[in-house]
Amino acid sequence: MHGAGRHQELYEEEVLLALDEGLLSSDEAAALREEALRLHRGPLELMKERGLLTENTLDLLRKDLARERTDRGGAAPIQEAPTLSTAPPATVDTDGAPAFPVPGWDRYEPVRFLGQGGMGTVFLAYDPLLRRNVALKFVRDGDPELARRFLSEARAQARVRHERVCEVYEVGEVRGQAFIAMRYVEGPSLGQLSHSLTLEQRVLVLAQAAEGVHAAHRAGLVHRDLKPGNILVERTEDGGFNPFVMDFGLARDWREEGGHPNAVLGTPHYMPPEQARGEGHRLDRRADVYALGGTLYALLTGQPPFTGDTETQVLTRLQTQPPVPPRALDANIPEDLEAIVLKCLEKERPLRYDSVRSLIDDLQRFLAGEPVRARHGARYWLRKKVRKHRAALMLGTGVVVVVAGALGQAALTRAQVSERERLARAFTERVERIESAVRYSALSRLHDTREDRQALRASMATLEADVRRAGTQAEGAGQYALGRALFALDDLDGARQKLEAAWTHGYREPRVAWALAQVLGHLYRDQLLLDVERRAPEQREARRQELNRRYRDPALVYLRQAEGPDVPAPPAFVKALFAFYEDRPEEALSLLGTPGMQVPWFYEAPLLRGDILLARAMQRWNGGDRAGSQADLSLSREAYAAAVATAESQPGVHAVLGRLELAAMVMELYGEGNVLPHYERGLKALSHALAAAPDHARALVLVARFHRRLAEQRTNQGGE
Fold first, then answer.
1. Buried/exposed code over 551-561 (b: 16+ C-beta within 10 A; e: otherwise)
2. CDD domains, from UniProt (predicted)?
3. Per-residue pLDDT tens for 210-244?
4. Which residues participate in the annotated binding site for ATP?
């Protein structure tokens, strides 16, 4: 096939893949198909251009597509593998595929190009020594971080010795090229195969694949990118199926720190909320439980649990909305299977299965017709037992045994979690949804957020009413949740009041200490960085001591109690706060320069960097170091601008940029007097803050202070 016909076929494959992954509706697919043909551009490329795909997702989809094309073409024969003299030297096919990077290699003989992913290229090759086909993966040139991740994938996958995990044969380097040789799986992905499987076969294959994930967990690894496309399935000679878990490129040891703790890595449609928030340091095996539940959801319904026009929209929905119950999409899905899926997809980790082993056990109960643990009611258990053992129950005594066992199990289940812990989890889950909605509103293009905040305040009012109804047993957890919500909505005084009430009521967990440290720290920074008046040294010192006593010192006390996995912040960020509050700015800046702090969406890091530099600029100015002060002001401005570029609709971020220009303007009043550039830049920043929130109190106060300072300068110069 040549020319337009060949392009049309390739474009159609890309559109169908996007449909299978739940990235497009049927109407959107038709429009995209037409546009691709008209522009002679690949559909996936067009989707990335419009913000519907990230570069990482695009690479993964192309890799899936390459696998599908390979599956249709069939595997290369093992017995008649090409020799070095007859194998293609560098190029593998005639469709513009990448060249085999090690021509003339005597260890492996290239057969054909299989696909290209985010880290490199994959080739089918023949091992003449062991007479078997292998999949050879080569890392992309010139990127040390990719090489590190590439070798990390190999080490991770090689650590897991299990029949349901694709085996790594060899890891090495040849002619400067790092490579992995692994088992070649001759079959499609589970997502591509699912439409031809019965419901029971889908459940069975997923349960088998989950055995491989469980083995990874026993080796200390969390996969972090499980989805239908990362499970390949081979047909057995007797017509059965052998699934293999693939692509451990994002796997990490959940017992260790490291990597990019606040990076959002993975496939948005299948990642749990904690992963979507970038809390990499908090991920444990329950993250994979969630992803397996999302995979099962897709196998049952034909779409992932959450979809959207952009990946940002998907990330927002998975944190703020419950998934549509599978039976609402297909009433033929069994209730027990729906219960299993929804338990996996709980937003609060303690409500999911505690392990993949527990999930596998419930899937096997479903296949055996036994009651599943995902449903707890005594009536349900009794009904299932009666249905399962109807003949035995006719004998009489079996009824008593089964009823007693069912009721005992139900009572045990209800007794597992105290009412206070249940309420704490429920309130925490709800406030995390509010926080996530605030964040994703902030990360959107600059817009008036009043409608967003009105909806969130309505959610908070409902939460507050539920806290009151719950009574004294929920007082601590409820006040904590309300305090976090107020902090997310930028109400620092209200947040402090609620959080201190939670602490007073004995709710003194590390996450409460962290929230209090955050609120007090923001109050400290706001007061400290607005205090640019020219005062005598003893007056400045007295003012600083007062701020330390009121805000900084208690913030440090709480910070020291804010340790552990429940603290929703990267460890380096917490350490940077410590260093800043303890007057060690260089150490704080160094910590903020670590790789984990460079993730674009985490605007809190450049925001803190800007605060540290502005505080140092003011210290240098008060000490007579004008040049050093100006240099720090410039660096602080750059840091704030980086935060603004990420959080365009967060009014407080624009306000701190205005605050910096006010400080610079005051310095100029006592210096050369060139205040207009700072006045204009400051009002521009504050206009953006007020565009996002026209009633933002701190921005309105800053606008008034700018006008007063300009009037003061003109009066001093004899103007009007």
1. bbebbbebbeb
2. STKc_PknB_like
3. 999 998 888 888 888 899 988 999 988 777 899 99
4. 137
Residue type, 302: G
Distance CA 245, CA 228 (A): 10
Task: Tell me, letter by letter, the H, E, C secondary structure of 504-561.
Answer: HCCCCCHHHHHHHHHHHHHHHHHHHHHCCCCCCHHHHHHHHHHHHHHHHHHHHHHHHC
Between strands 168-174 and 109-116, the pairing is unpaired
Question: How many angstroms separate the CA atoms of 167 and 213, rounded?
Answer: 13
Q: Residue 460 has what pLDDT?
A: 82
From the number of C-beta atoms within 10 Å of its C-beta (0-12, 13-18, 19+), residue 128 rates as middle
CATH for the stretch 73-183? 3.30.200.20
CA distance 663 to 457: 33
Query: Length of the chain, please?
Result: 720
What ranges in 262-333 are assigned the alpha helix state H? Answer: 273-276, 285-301, 311-320, 326-329
**For 434, phi and psi rounded to 5 degrees?**
-65, -45
Which homologous superfamily is 197-375 in? Transferase(Phosphotransferase) domain 1 (1.10.510.10)
3-state secondary structure (DSSP) of residue 234: strand
CA distance linking residue 581 with residue 524, whole number of Å: 9
pLDDT of residue 562: 84
State how far the Cα of 519 lies from the Cα of 550, in Å rounded to an integer: 12
Q: Which residues are annotated as a binding site?
A: 137
Q: The tokens of 163 are what? A: 């029949």
Q: Where are the domains of the chain?
A: 1-53, 73-183, 197-375
Specify whether the CB–CB gap between 307 and 20 falls below 8 A. no
